[in-house]
Specification:
11 helices
Length: about 375
C-alpha cells in the first residue's frame, strides 16, 4: 500500500503576519528618516551649499543621494559616488593604524614617544613624557599648528603650500606647550602629525602606504586615498572660498595632501564601510577597539573616535566630524555597526579669515550633526 505524503507545513499565520509587520515598520521608519533628512538637506542647499552627498545604511539596506553640482563652472550634477576631502575623519583611520602597532606589541598605548620620535628631541619642547594614548585622545596639551601665524596668511599661499608632518610640528613648536595642559582635552591637529611620524618610524614606510595596507586594501575602499592629489579627476566635488572678492577653488589643497591629521579623500560609501568594519571588530582586537571607544575625561572623545548619544540603545554611537577649506563632513554609526549615516558637504563660498565665517561653519557643523542624529533616531523609531 502506498501512502500519500503532503507538502511540508507552511509558517504559522501569526509568523507571516509578524514578519510582514516588521517589514512594514522598517519601511515606514526608513521613509520617515529619509523624508526628514531631505528637508534638512534642502535647508543647506537653500543656504548656498555647492553640493551635499549622503548615504544612510541599515541592516539589509541603504539609501544614497547627491544634491547640487560637482563644481560651479561646469554645473555638472553631483553623484552619490563622488569624492571629497573628509578632513578629520582621517584621524579615525590613522588611530586604527596606531592601535595596530599596539596590538602587535611594537609600542605600548601608555608608552612615551619622547625617546622614539626625533621631532620630540630636536623640534618640540614637551614639558614632560607624552604617551601614545595622549596623542590619540588629544590630552597631550600640544599646541595646534593651525593656530600659528602661518595659517593666518593669504589663502592661496596657505592652501597651495604643501605642509610636511615635520614642518607642521615646527609650526606647533613656535607656540607655548604648557605643563598645565598635559592631561587635559584640547583638540590639536599636531597630535596626529606626531602619530603619522610614529607610524612611519615603526613601520618603515610612508603613512599613506600603511593606511592602504591596514585599511583601504583589506576593505576594498577603491575610492579612498591619502596620497598625491588628482584635482582634475571628474568624480571630485569642488569647494570654494572667497578671498579679496575672488572665488578660489580649494579642491584638495596642498596643505592637506598626505596629512595624517586631515588628508584623506573618500566617498560616503567608503567612509560608512570603514566605520562598519571598525565597529564590527574587523580591524582591531576586541581589547583595542574597547580602548578606542573609551571617552576622555569631560569630553565625548576616545582614541580618534568621537561618541554621540544613541537614543535607540541608551548607549553611544561612534564616528567623527571633519571640516577644512570649504568641506564639511559627519559620519556616525551605531555601536553594532548596523545603522549608519555619512554626509559630506561643500558649503557656500565664505570669506577667508572672517570671524563670521568661523561662526557660520560652527553652526553648519552643529546642524549637520543634528540632521545625522535625527536620521538615525528615526531609523529605530525614536
Amino acid at each position: 500500500m502506498s501512502g500519500c505524503v503532503g507538502a511540508p507545513p507552511g509558517p504559522a499565520p501569526s509568523s507571516v503576519f509578524a514578519t510582514q509587520a516588521a517589514t512594514d515598520s522598517l519601511e515606514r521608519r526608513v521613509q520617515a528618516a529619509t523624508d526628514s533628512l531631505e528637508g534638512r538637506v534642502q535647508h543647506f542647499m537653500d543656504g548656498g551649499a555647492t553640493s551635499l552627498v549622503v548615504q544612510v545604511r541599515w541592516p539589509g539596506g541603504e539609501w544614497s543621494k547627491a544634491y547640487g553640482v560637482r563644481n560651479l563652472d561646469s554645473k555638472e550634477p553631483a553623484r552619490p559616488q563622488d569624492r571629497v576631502s573628509v578632513a578629520s575623519i582621517t584621524k579615525s583611520m590613522v588611530a586604527v593604524s596606531v592601535l595596530k602597532l599596539v596590538d602587535q606589541g611594537l609600542i605600548g598605548l601608555d608608552d612615551p614617544v619622547n625617546g622614539v620620535l626625533e621631532s620630540f628631541r630636536t623640534t618640540l619642547r614637551p614639558p614632560g613624557p607624552i604617551t601614545v594614548r595622549q596623542l590619540l585622545n588629544h590630552n597631550s596639551g600640544m599646541p595646534d599648528y593651525v593656530d600659528s601665524e602661518y595659517t593666518a596668511g593669504p589663502l592661496k599661499q596657505v592652501a597651495n603650500t604643501r605642509l610636511s608632518m615635520q614642518r607642521g610640528l615646527e609650526l606647533a613648536a613656535m607656540l607655548p606647550w604648557e605643563a598645565k595642559n598635559v592631561g587635559r582635552f584640547s583638540y590639536s591637529n599636531s597630535n596626529y602629525l606626531a602619530l603619522g611620524q610614529l607610524i612611519e618610524k615603526l613601520r618603515g614606510r610612508p603613512v599613506a602606504d600603511v593606511l592602504n595596507q591596514d585599511i583601504f586594501g583589506p576593505l576594498g575602499l577603491q575610492h579612498t586615498s591619502l596620497a598625491e592629489p588628482d584635482r582634475g579627476a571628474p568624480d571630485n566635488i569642488h569647494a570654494y572660498i572667497i578671498d579679496g572678492g575672488e572665488r578660489v577653488d580649494v579642491t584638495q589643497p596642498e596643505i592637506f595632501v598626505g596629512s595624517p591629521a586631515g588628508g584623506v579623500i573618500s566617498t560616503t560609501q567608503d567612509i560608512n564601510t570603514f566605520y562598519r568594519a571598525l565597529l564590527r571588530g574587523q580591524l582591531l582586537s576586541p581589547a583595542m577597539l574597547e580602548e578606542m571607544k573609551k571617552k576622555t575625561e569631560f569630553w565625548e572623545y576616545g582614541l580618534g573616535l568621537a561618541r554621540f548619544p544613541d537614543a535607540c540603545s541608551g548607549g553611544f554611537r561612534y564616528g567623527h566630524a571633519g571640516y577644512a577649506f570649504g568641506y564639511m563632513s559627519i559620519s556616525i554609526t551605531s555601536a553594532d555597526g548596523g545603522n549608519q549615516i555619512t554626509m559630506t558637504m561643500a558649503h557656500a563660498p565664505l570669506p577667508w579669515q572672517d570671524p563670521a565665517t568661523a561662526r557660520r561653519a560652527d553652526l553648519l557643523q552643529t546642524q549637520m550633526e543634528q540632521a545625522a542624529q535625527e536620521t538615525l533616531d528615526r531609523l529605530c523609531g525614536q
